[in-house]
Amino acid sequence: MEIRITQTTTPSELPPEDKLGFGKVFTDHMFLMDYEEGKGWHDARIEPFGRITLHPASTVLHYGAEIFEGLKAYRRKDGGVQLFRPMENIRRMNNSAERMSLPQIDEGDMLQILETFVRLEERFVPKSFGTSLYLRPFTFGNDETLGVHAVKRATFMLIASPSGSYYAEGINPVKIMIESEDVRTVRGGTGYAKCGGNYAASTRAGERAAKKGYSQVLWLDGVERKYIEEVGAMNVMFKIDGEIVTPALTGSILPGITRKSCIEVLKSLGYAVSERLLSVDELLTAMKAGKLEEAWGCGTAAVVSPIGKLAYGDDEYEIGGGKIGPLTQKLYDILTGIQWGEVEDTFGWIHKL
Ligand code: PLP
Ligand code: COI
Question: Once rounded to an integer, what is the mean pLDDT over residues 24-50?
Answer without folding.
Answer: 97
